């Protein structure tokens, strides 16, 4: 019968696939805990048989059995720990790709989930599975068995051990009630402080240039001080709880020994049984004490589990798209509307358009008219949209992104380059094809510029292209978009940072792409590039107000109004 609990999420289903491994961990725990009775039996034999008989041979044999059983117990515990480590590593290995994809999906969809936190969560879960917390989970069910053995030695000590176990369980529940929320709150505050600094480091140049460091430092102080206060309070409660637990545990051990001594004085048990009962009491309460000691890692692992569970539920593994032939580049837009959280009016409003394959489409319009949003919708990266974007008549969602990606060239308005060589960035960090890399660089007119760098195409550019100027980054991003001769190119402000030579190279590249039968969607604020357009699209307030052949659209516009609009665009 399939349990509903294990249908709860992808993460719980994945853990359920390790049920046989956990079963064997339970078996090894059974062996180790049964053999934990060895010292008790040894004491009973020594005090009850060896001391009375005075037989050295009996003592030798009993001792040899003791060493053998200790060896088996140690081997079982080693196998248990090794198996838990393998479970943690396999869980990480089977989930890391899914967590990677889901994290980037969440970031792409403007989800508040932090990408780097996801990998930290997976690490926390893996480490918890290999730590003492899970071992305590498997050892705790043996507490009643040890107490039952104490009952066999002396009923009074058995009832006393039950009282002590209830006290220990009460301390564990109290620890959960008091500490858990404080630990989670302290962790959240620390993460907020860390995230604040990280977000500012991404834009360090304007922050430093305009003297904003002090202002941000003051705000960070407030977040950091709050995290310190919560961390201090959390740690203080944890240490207080551990001190109380330690006091109770030592007191109970001594009281057990005292109660056993009283039973010996009254002749109700032997001295060997008294010592054995004390050892059993310590062993019975040890897992409960370990639960208290590992409560913080448990709370952190639980929070990490819930975050990962939510992430994988909201952004599951995408099913592979249908196989398609290589696209020709026809783009059809049907009833496209785009919205964003926090804005009442949509950015794009019921747009319909057809861009035939092999045409150069130039999109103009004032700032805020929705041009960049249209570009993101065309390449399928805008999350909140309605309507359809069809590539060769097929919805873009039906294409496998890995399959479609090489056929799309995209140059965003904010160019992002990555830590690596120039060749790796142009080749999109796939296996570098030197001929294709050089071809893309020549098309954008940067081949000679690259050769002047210290190591040519192998020159590392630094994170985000920090060693390059704005124009160089833009032309390198354009070369990346053209790499592999894609069927469709969407270029958002490709000439924003270009000088006259760079713009001439861009015009030549677009003209060459048209001759090759490629579809180019080009968004611009400069009217100088309108000469390469086959179709001209004019946008305003999230709508297409004009769309058609370039000359017809220009003729339809009032020259006195069109000129300012185009220059403003």
Question: How would you explain this protein's 3D organization?
Answer:
With 569 residues, this protein is α/β, with parallel strands linked by helices. It has 3 domains: 9-131; 142-293, ABC transporter transmembrane region fold, CATH 1.20.1560.10; 331-568, P-loop containing nucleotide triphosphate hydrolases (Rossmann fold, 3-Layer(aba) Sandwich). Helix content is 62%, strand content 10%. The protein has helices at 10-16, 19-35, 38-53, 56-108, 115-129, 132-139, 143-153, 155-201, 204-209, 213-265, 271-293, 295-314, 371-378, 401-404, 422-426, 434-443, 447-451, 470-482, 500-515, 550-556, 559-568, and strands spanning 331-338, 348-355, 360-364, 385-391, 394-395, 408-411, 488-492, 519-523, 535-540, 543-549. The strands form 2 sheets. The protein has a 6-stranded mixed beta sheet with strand order 6-7-8-3-9-10, with helices on both faces. It has a 4-stranded antiparallel beta sheet with strand order 2-1-4-5. Strand 9 and strand 10 form a beta hairpin. Residues 1-6 and 560-569 have low confidence and may be disordered.
Portion in strands: 5-15%
In the CATH hierarchy, the third-tier topology of the largest domain is known as Rossmann fold
**CATH homology-level superfamily of the largest domain:** P-loop containing nucleotide triphosphate hydrolases
- The top-level CATH class of the largest domain is Alpha Beta
* Terminal CA distance: 65 Å
The tally of helices reads: 21
Helix content: 55-70%
Radius of gyration: 35 Å
Largest sheet: 6 strands, mixed
* Low-pLDDT residue spans: 1-6, 560-569
CATH architectural designation of the largest domain: 3-Layer(aba) Sandwich
Structural class assignment: alpha/beta
Q: Round the mean pLDDT to the nearest integer and report it.
A: 80
Q: Describe the global form.
A: elongated
Number of domains: 3
């Amino acid at each position: 019968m399939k349990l509903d609990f294990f249908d709860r999420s992808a993460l719980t289903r994945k853990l359920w696939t390790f049920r046989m491994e956990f079963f064997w961990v339970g078996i090894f725990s059974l062996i180790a805990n049964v053999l934990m009775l060895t010292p008790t039996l040894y004491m009973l034999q020594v005090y009850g048989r060896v001391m009375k008989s005075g037989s050295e041979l009996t003592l030798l044999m009993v001792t040899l059995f003791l060493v053998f059983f200790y060896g088996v117990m140690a081997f079982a515990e080693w196998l248990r720990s090794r198996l838990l480590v393998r479970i943690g590593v396999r869980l990480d290995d089977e989930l890391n790709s899914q967590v990677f994809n889901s994290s980037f999906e969440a970031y792409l969809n403007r989800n508040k989930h932090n990408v780097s936190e996801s990998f930290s969560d997976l690490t926390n879960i893996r480490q918890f599975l290999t730590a003492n917390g899970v071992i305590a989970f498997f050892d705790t069910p043996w507490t009643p068995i040890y107490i039952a053995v104490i009952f066999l030695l002396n009923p009074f000590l058995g009832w006393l051990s039950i009282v002590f176990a209830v006290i220990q369980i009460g301390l564990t529940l109290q620890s959960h009630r008091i500490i858990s929320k404080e630990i989670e709150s302290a962790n959240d505050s620390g993460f907020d402080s860390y995230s604040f600094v990280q977000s500012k480091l991404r834009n360090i140049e304007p922050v430093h240039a305009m003297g904003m460091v002090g202002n941000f430092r003051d705000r960070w102080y407030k977040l950091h001080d709050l995290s310190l206060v919560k961390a201090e309070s959390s740690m203080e409660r944890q240490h207080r709880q551990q001190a109380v637990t330690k006091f109770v545990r030592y007191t109970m051990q001594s009281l057990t020994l005292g109660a056993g001594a009283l039973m010996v004085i009254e002749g109700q048990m032997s001295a060997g049984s008294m010592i054995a009962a004390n050892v059993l009491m310590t062993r019975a309460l040890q897992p409960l004490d370990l639960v208290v000691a590992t409560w913080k890692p448990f709370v952190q692992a639980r929070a990490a589990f819930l975050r990962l569970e939510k992430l994988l539920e909201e952004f599951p593994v995408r099913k592979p798209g249908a196989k398609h032939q290589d696209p020709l580049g026809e783009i059809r837009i049907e009833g496209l509307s785009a919205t964003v959280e926090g804005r009442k009016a949509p950015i794009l409003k019921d747009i319909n358009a057809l861009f035939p394959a092999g045409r150069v489409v130039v999109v103009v319009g004032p700032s805020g008219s929705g041009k960049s949003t249209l570009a993101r919708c065309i390449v399928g990266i805008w999350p909140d949209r309605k309507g359809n974007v069809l590539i060769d008549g097929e919805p873009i969602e039906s294409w496998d992104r890995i399959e479609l990606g090489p056929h799309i060239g995209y140059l965003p308005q904010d160019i992002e380059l990555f830590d690596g060589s120039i060749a790796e960035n142009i080749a999109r960090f796939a296996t570098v094809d030197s001929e294709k890399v050089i071809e893309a660089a020549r098309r954008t007119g940067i081949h000679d510029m690259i050769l002047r760098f210290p190591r040519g195409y192998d020159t590392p550019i630094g994170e985000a292209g920090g060693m390059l100027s704005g124009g160089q980054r833009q032309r390198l991003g354009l070369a990346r978009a053209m790499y592999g001769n894609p069927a469709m190119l969407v270029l958002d402000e490709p000439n924003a940072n270009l000088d006259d030579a760079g713009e001439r190279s861009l015009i030549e590249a677009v003209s060459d792409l048209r001759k090759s039968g490629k579809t180019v969607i080009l968004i611009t604020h400069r009217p100088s590039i309108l000469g390469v357009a086959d179709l001209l699209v004019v946008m305003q307030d999230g709508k297409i107000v004009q769309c058609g052949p370039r000359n017809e659209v220009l003729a339809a516009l009032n020259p006195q109004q069109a000129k300012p609009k185009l220059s403003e665009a």
